[in-house]
From TrEMBL:
Protein species of origin: Colletotrichum tanaceti
UniProtKB keywords: Membrane, Transmembrane, Transmembrane helix
Region: Disordered, residue numbers: 79-110, 238-272
Transmembrane parts of this sequence: 505-526, 532-550
Regions of compositional bias (Low complexity) in chain numbering: 261-270
Acidic residues bias (residue ranges): 98-110
Protein name: Uncharacterized protein
Top-level taxon: Eukaryota
Length: 560
């Protein structure tokens, strides 16, 4: 239940950061008090307990429709002013009537509000946006951690060095030598090779490297020590028995921090609450509890951390701010980065299904859904194969950069621009409590890139190196002040770099060749004319070579 309350708090903060107007900002204030979130969690907990435990059906909780209540909410939203300075929750002119028995239900008022426009827009904002999708995904991961590849064992043994045969060692050395010949490090950079390990039972074991440039004397040595201390890697050049970190703690079953991780913060807040209550001995119990609740809310908001991620949207880059104060290690933070990247690129990526006209694509999707429900389970791979073919994209997440950027208004949106890579927040920003990262200042090494393609693999990275190194915005998200002459809004974070997905491209070519071959075989069987069949195949190949690039560039031009 407590974890559900934490997820509700993150859901509220995400809604508040994305609310487009004042009406929706007022509506989400219902989730601000902790008492309201506790009531919601208790209601969900009771609903789940009352459900049959042996049943695997989804628990249904449908709120009954009430025209009188909907009309009251619509009146309340209509009374909210559009000005951001107004506070309708405290103004008696727009205060809602919470007692439905005392509210008037005249027919004239009902006829005056034929369509509940504001209520429907607010409801759509609550249930159809990215905040609810994130809440559902995180709650599902918390309930079913094993499904995501996170295995729990009663006792975790200390991490042991990976044992490899001589043949495997020579194979690794040969592949590393060939890769260095094909793609050597940039001038001035040194390639640090390591074996990615993890404290979970299924260690990653991949042979990785980081290209780093030393910025100060002894910086490379301190960088290698941090790699080992944070449990990221066994260095290839060193002896595993000497450099392997011992006694690594296993990852938590869920990605939320336990209660003990914020004991100091809770202790400070409790002391503040006691002193505050002593200064007001004549206040009522209700006022005291309300002040304590408000103080705890402010304390929680002061501990928030936001990772600023710049994602390419083909037409314009977009800034995503991930609230990462609840993440315990790199694994779940990088998974969240991958989910945000997929959600952003879902609206601006080319797929193989775009080769077909929209009515034809819709017909095939419905046909595959129908077949998936009717065919036997042993043949379920057929609709899944066609579904994966329709979702083939030409780009994928590759690496990342540490960047400095400026928020620039473009029409109605605010996008990151003037991006400069390999920069961290200055030490003054950290001392002012605006950003957090380690080490401060970043004068040891400069990394050529962040291996996001490797870190986003689920269930294998329980170290804390990257979550400590990423610069995080503290207390509140990065916002740009309105006005032409406002001061420039500067932010620091990471940028996601994309790469051409050669595997998907070659697979698409193979599918086209196979389809042309099948058509040629059918035509040859029907006509028994070899020359005509091969001529038809040549024509289809030439038409495909023109049609596929045409569809891609037409989509790209329309997107831009």
């Amino acid at each position: 239940r407590k974890n559900h309350e934490r997820l509700l708090k993150r859901y509220y903060l995400s809604l508040r950061s994305q609310a487009p107007n004042q009406k929706q900002k007022v509506a989400i204030e219902f989730l601000r008090p902790r008492s309201h979130r506790r009531l919601i969690s208790l209601s969900v907990h009771e609903k789940v307990l009352s459900h049959v435990k042996t049943s695997r059906d989804q628990v249904q909780a449908i709120l009954p429709e009430d025209d009188k209540r909907n009309l009251t909410l619509e009146r309340f939203l209509n009374g909210v002013e559009a000005s951001p300075d107004s506070q309708p929750t405290e103004s008696p002119e727009v205060a809602p009537c919470y007692d439905e028995e005392d509210c008037s239900s005249d027919e004239e008022d009902r006829e005056g509000i034929q369509t509940l426009v504001d209520l429907e827009e607010t409801r759509s904002f609550f249930i159809s946006g990215a905040p609810l999708a994130h809440f559902r995904a995180e709650f599902r991961k918390f309930l079913y951690p094993i499904r995501d590849g996170v295995e729990e064992t009663p006792e975790m043994e200390p991490l042991k060095p990976l044992e490899r045969s001589n043949l495997m060692r020579w194979r690794v050395k040969l592949s590393a030598w060939l890769y260095d010949m094909w793609s050597p490090p940039k001038p001035g950079y040194e390639r640090v090779r390591y074996t990615c390990v993890s404290s979970c039972p299924r260690a990653c074991g991949d042979d990785m490297f980081l290209d780093a440039r030393e910025l100060s004397p002894g910086g490379m040595t301190r960088f290698l020590e941090r790699l080992a201390d944070d449990g990221l890697a066994h260095l290839t050049a060193a002896q595993d028995s000497e450099d392997a970190p011992s006694g690594l703690s296993p990852p938590p079953p869920a990605y939320l921090r336990p209660e003990g991780s914020r004991s100091s913060a809770s202790g400070q807040s409790s002391d503040f609450e006691i002193s505050f209550s002593r200064r007001r001995p004549f206040s009522s119990t209700t006022n005291t509890s309300r002040s304590e609740e408000q103080t705890s809310e402010e304390e929680e908001e002061s501990n928030l951390q936001y990772l600023l991620v710049c994602i390419n949207q083909k037409s314009l880059p977009v800034l995503v701010q991930i609230e990462c104060s609840a993440f315990e290690n790199d694994q779940y933070l990088c998974q969240q980065i991958l989910e945000e990247y997929r959600m952003i690129r879902e609206r601006s990526t080319w797929k193989a299904s775009f080769l077909l006209p929209l009515p034809v694509s819709t017909f095939f999707n419905r046909a595959f859904e129908y077949l998936a429900q009717r065919i036997p389970s042993r043949m379920g791979w057929i609709p899944r194969l066609f579904q994966s073919l329709s979702e083939i994209s030409l780009f994928k997440m590759d690496t990342g950069d540490f960047v400095r950027f400026q928020l620039v208004p473009v029409r109605l949106a605010t996008v990151p621009n003037h991006i400069r890579r390999a920069e961290f927040p200055p030490e003054s920003e950290v001392k002012a409590g605006n950003y957090l990262y380690e080490p401060v200042p970043m004068l040891d090494v400069e990394l050529a890139s962040i291996p996001l393609w490797h870190l986003t693999r689920p269930g294998q990275h329980s170290d804390k190196y990257w979550i400590r190194t990423f610069p995080k915005k503290l207390r509140y998200p990065l916002r740009r002040e309105a006005g032409v002459y406002a001061r420039p809004t500067i932010g620091w974070g990471i940028r996601v770099n994309e790469a051409f997905n050669l595997h998907h491209f070659l697979f698409l070519i193979i599918v086209v060749v196979v389809v042309i071959g099948v058509i040629m075989g059918i035509y040859l069987a029907l006509t028994a004319d070899d020359s005509s069949a091969f001529g038809l195949a040549a024509f289809l190949a030439a038409a495909s070579a023109i049609y596929i690039p045409y569809q891609y560039f037409a989509w790209k031009e329309k997107l831009e």
